[in-house]
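lol so apparently i was supposed to do this last week
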Amino acid sequence: MKQEMKQIKQMKEMTNRIARILLCLLASAALLATRPSDVNGWGAHGHELSGRAAAMNFPAEAPKFFRKAVNQLGYLNPEPDRWRSREESNLDKALDSAYAPDHFLDMELVPPAAFNAVNRYEFTAEMIKAGQKPTTAGFVPFSILEMFQRLRIEFRLWRAEKDSNKRKWIEQRIINDAGILGHYVSDAANPHHTTIHYNGWSGANPKGYTTYTRENGIHYRFEELYVQSHIQINDVAPLVGAPRVIEKPREEIWNYLRSSNALVEQLYILDKQEPFGDKTTSPEHKKFVSARLAAGAQMLRDLWWTAWVTSAPAPVATTAETK
Ligand SMILES: [Zn+2]
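anyway here it is w/ zinc ion bound
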């Protein structure tokens, strides 16, 4: 009897210990899943450069009100990071905790079936099926696609509107939404926004890359400290290529993310050679960062241009052609 009691006591202790370990693991998983709000896209300077470079390269055939909005489109590019204000989060966490995943996508966490999801809800369903938290991987391709669709609808409304007042109101909607679209496109050009290694190498690290640091980590040094001190509009705008209409926006947005994710290790290699920061001297670092910002600006300009061009009504076939 005594022996049995002893066994029961031992089992209880073990169960308690396992429960404690599980709670610890869950708590650390929750911490890892929540990105600190100081991890932003490119910093305000990089975002503004990206928005301006895209707007400066907009084709002359586009509507004049849009071409005149270069400064405004630059100003609006960092806007969704302003919504992440710590001052506001201290009052209520509803906004930031809900929309933080709009800014990134950890490609490594995406289950294969999720790449075909029609919308963010189908995407989260695939994440859950794969045993993951629905928001852990992020949503940036959907943030881009959703804003792109809004913009195309607004251009379509603008083309059809005869009332000059209403046209002006639609113009305001177009510029604002084009600016917000710009934020998420620019975010995804930053390789950190496409990976689990978003602020230091995560997991096995045989090459000894820099690891997670909350203060002055690679994310901040790369996108803010370095960009602010080294990159100006003339380093980015001339690198933006010729405009084109994107045939399949959904596929191309995913490919755009893949191409950014493919540069994650290169970013860490460069940082190992010489850390990104305000004192960095290497021309290779400057080339890499300018090219990334330009890739973002090019994708943004092409999405704006595509929204405009494909918002035109389908040409009406002439009688001769229909016969
Ligand atoms: Zn962002």
